[in-house]
Write a structure and sequence with these properties.
This protein is of the alpha/beta class. It has seven helices and seven strands, in the order αααβββαβαβαβαβ. It is elongated.
Length: 199
């Protein structure tokens, strides 16, 4: 069976490492990139390099940003006493689309998953606890996914945060168990925020 040119194969292998991209989709992406005029493929490569060079984690919430602080942390109109904890930056964007939440966020960049070798040290637990330890935080909303890893992470964090005397709540999910928060529609997320419950 023909494998194709080695550079094309390597490009497809790199695309296949992206979560959610299967082998066939990775091959289609690789073929698409090499079919572009040289200036277009170079523009894509340059854009990737620019993003990697200029984007880093916010000094407060760990979301991705160009500046020291992200737009949410830098906004004085946001309620700094409420922190919504999400697994990924995409989850933050999903909640922002509802226009129902006016607090701040904390991005974990993952969830506790011992089977995958991900413990509390691999996500931003230490940074979250440092924020909670500061005066002024009244509530932490757990908005992790409703799968096993998300629930485990929420329970673990809740146990660490409660001794600080801070209220810990969990989103009321009308979201199917096992689904990702980033794929939920705005109405479902709005209701989940409004109906959050104590943990």
């Amino acid at each position: 069976m023909a494998q194709g040119a080695a550079p094309l194969r390597r490009l497809a292998e790199k695309f296949a490492r992206i979560p959610g991209i299967g082998r066939k989709t990775a091959q289609r992406m690789a073929y698409y990139i090499i079919s572009l005029p040289a200036e277009e493929s170079k523009a894509i490569a340059d854009t990737i390099l620019e993003a990697c060079a200029n984007i880093h984690r916010c000094a407060v919430c760990c979301d991705y940003t160009e500046g020291e602080l992200c737009a949410v942390c830098d906004d004085d109109r946001r309620d700094k006493g409420v922190i919504c904890v999400v697994e990924q930056p995409q989850d933050l964007l999903a909640i922002e689309r509802t226009r129902e939440y006016n607090g701040t966020y904390h991005v974990l960049h993952g969830a506790i998953s011992p089977l995958d070798g991900i413990g509390p040290e691999q996500i931003t637990v230490k940074e979250l606890l440092a924020r909670v330890a500061q005066d002024g935080v009244r509530e932490v909303i757990m908005a992790t996914d409703s799968d096993t890893e998300g629930e485990t992470t929420a329970m673990y964090l809740s146990k660490l945060i409660k001794p600080f005397g801070v209220k810990v709540t969990r989103l009321a999910y009308g979201i199917p168990v096992g689904s990702d928060l980033q794929y939920a529609d705005e109405v479902t997320l709005s209701r989940a925020i409004e109906g959050r419950r104590d943990m």
